């Protein structure tokens, strides 16, 4: 049960009071349709239904910790906002906000329109756009980096059916880290953000809840910042270690679709920019972001050139071919064209499987998921620059990796090979090899040696301690065992006994941090020589 009162200093994710909810709906006016004619045709009952649905959707969002944080930020805003409904034929369009406007528009034909939790998140997404201080020429990637991260977080907290598994795992990892910090007071080096200070007079149960809510608040901010960073820069710059703990190729694909929207500027004799003002505005809302996090995007857009329109038609047709691979409905001409592309393949295995899959399609037979994966990838991999737009190719290839992770989250040699080939296709030196058992950044490529339930341990022996110290040690989350042996009959000091500590954590990096914490908190028991020896032990087996 989440407490309704503020449990720690700086908390923003606790349940809203009735006064706060009322203040929010005074700040955010809900309307049915944008046009007077639409409202007139709809009638008062219909208008009321839409307004009530918007209200219900926002109330669902208010049940989430991050939704409540956003509501409080909106209440503090100097602006007032309006939410309108509109009808668009594209079910994939959730809503929009015009730069510089406090009005947001929600598509009533959205495929999620019957899911209040999802629509509530969409409204908060667009209201964040309405609060951004931005330039009209700002890149869509820049404007949506922060808002997409918010949507990903809200999808996790509402347990949405389309939530990103990789983002969810990254959030849970961060949440565990911040829970440990709340319990131990062991903050990252040079951390200047919100530290855990519970309010006075909390019960033991309330203190536990306070620690959990602090962990959620900090993990939400940090994971959103990581997703914002990964969205801002092309996946080709992720290298081995993207910002998210578990790299999200779905996010990479989504990012390319927004980058493609920047073509609007070129079509109107303009060029997308990455303004300093907008970057600073985004940073002001998240302590885990820096202005330099948007430098890669600035470089990309500064050097970007308008799309060759001669490629558009070919790109569209080849994009359709990729979709047709899902069904045994390819025309003879399309099959012939696909075969020509597949025959360019240099890898004998990929070529053989892809050609065999085409033969199955010719006979009207469906393909297995693996056959579809290989066929689509091989086709995309062998398309030339004049046959498919760069953004479209990246979207399709990243989506294939995402689907591979969803269908087979464990270690997968085929996915590893596809990722390496994708890196070559998009001009990247390397892309992160996604294996969900990874425990630390340094272990991303060593997942064959790890299991999800495997932890790192260190058994150390120190001199005997007073009971007070022993009680403090056993409370630490990474200390799994404290065992003290006392020999009162010993004739020599070295035979009088010892205290054994067993440390356990998710990675060797964290074990080193645990040692650092012990040395700082218990300087009298962790001698320098012992500390250096323990470090050498960890490095020797890491």
Fill in the keyword field for this structure.
globular, 542 residues, 7 strands, three-stranded antiparallel sheet, alpha/beta, 20 helices
List the helices and strands and how they pair.
Blueprint: H1 18-27, E1 28-33, H2 36-61, H3 65-76, E2 81-86, E3 95-97, E4 103-107, H4 116-131, H5 140-157, H6 165-184, H7 204-232, H8 249-261, H9 263-267, H10 276-284, H11 295-303, H12 309-324, H13 332-342, H14 348-362, H15 369-381, H16 390-407, H17 413-425, E5 456-462, H18 467-474, E6 479-486, E7 497-505, H19 508-521, H20 528-541
Describe the structure.
- Helix content is 53%, strand content 8%.
- β3 (95-97) and β4 form a beta hairpin.
- The protein is built from 20 helices and 7 strands.
- A 4-stranded mixed sheet has the order 1-2-4-3. A 3-stranded antiparallel sheet has the order 5-7-6.
- α1 crosses α3 (65-76), α5 (140-157) packs antiparallel against α7 (204-232) and α14 packs across α15 (369-381).
- The chain has 4 domains: 18-131; 165-193 and 201-301, no CATH class; 310-438, no CATH class; 456-541, Alpha-Beta Plaits, CATH 3.30.70.
- By secondary structure, it is α/β, with parallel strands linked by helices.
Percentage beta strand = 5-15%
Radius of gyration of CA atoms, rounded to a whole number? 27 Å
Instruction: Tell me the number of helical segments per DSSP (H or I, 4 or more residues long).
Output: 20
Largest sheet: 4 strands, mixed
Helix/strand order: HEHHEEEHHHHHHHHHHHHHHEHEEHH
What strand line-up does the widest sheet have? 1-2-4-3
| Overall morphology | globular
How many domains, as an integer? 4
Number of strand elements: 7
